[in-house]
Amino acid sequence: MSLWEYANPVKFMALSGRILPWAAWLSGICLVVGLIWGFFFTPDDFRQGSTVKIIYLHVPSALMAINIWMMMLVTSLVWIIRRHHVSALAAKAAAPIGVAMTLIALITGAIWGQPMWGTWWAWDPRLTSFLILFLFYLGYIALWAAIEDNDTAADLTSILCLVGSVFAVLSRYAVNFWNQGLHQGASLSLDKEKNVADVFYFPLLVCIAGFVLLFIALVLLRTRTEIRARRASALLARERMA
Amino acid sequence: MMPDLGKYADAVLGAYAASIVLLIAIVALSIWQARRTKAALDDVEKRRNG
After folding, report:
1. Is the CATH number of domain A20-176+193-234 1.20.120?
2. Which of A94, A98, A197, A227 has its CA 20 to 30 A from that of A136?
3. pLDDT tens, A28-40?
4. What residues of chain B lie within 8 A of the CB of A218, using their CB?
5. Highest mean pLDDT among A9-23, A115-129, A170-184
């Protein structure tokens, strides 16, 4: 069995229909457990006080904002190289979820930054690259909407996705490239010494799992919607020609 | 039951409220679009087959 079999819309619909309810339920469970655990049952941080509870929303959403763009990059490359329509539609389906995640990261970051840094916003490398990533998401959605021919839209948005990937990578590594700005280093690291304390780490992992599963459920649902919309417009076009 | 959020209560509750609203919005929008598109496709297919 090859992964490319699922480029066939019929096979994709069958498989995604089976995975979708599981991903949806598991994401709901992880989000409820993780957020309740983090909000109600973790202590305040000795420096940041209760604002540390924002970590359970800010870190998973920021992580998803960057990785959703990376998923769009992979599916866009598959479209450019192999011309699989499901792949292009999956990238299109992921973009609005990316907008929501980037917006959550920006809003929670601003709300967290105000009491900690004394300002809602600073033109810090990570914050600025994240804002540009948000604008790329909006531009990507607008470009899909602006072009009538689906294949041309997929081609041009794929190129935009390649360009925007620079900012997705910058958003992730900006704090490492430039040793300046207000934003702290990564909260999660393979180096245990650099990680947040275990009492915050475990509920954070559950929340991250919830956000990842929510993305899987939503991107499957939205890709199925795009496939159905494409089929409906093809049938309508045939009806008009008959 | 409610933890004491101290002087940062507004910030923490504001962050949770904004995030939950956005999460519900993207889920609701996706479900609404999925239902509308499925109904439209069913309609076209029914016309085509019937």
Report:
1. yes
2. A227
3. 999 999 999 999 9
4. 26-27, 30
5. A9-23
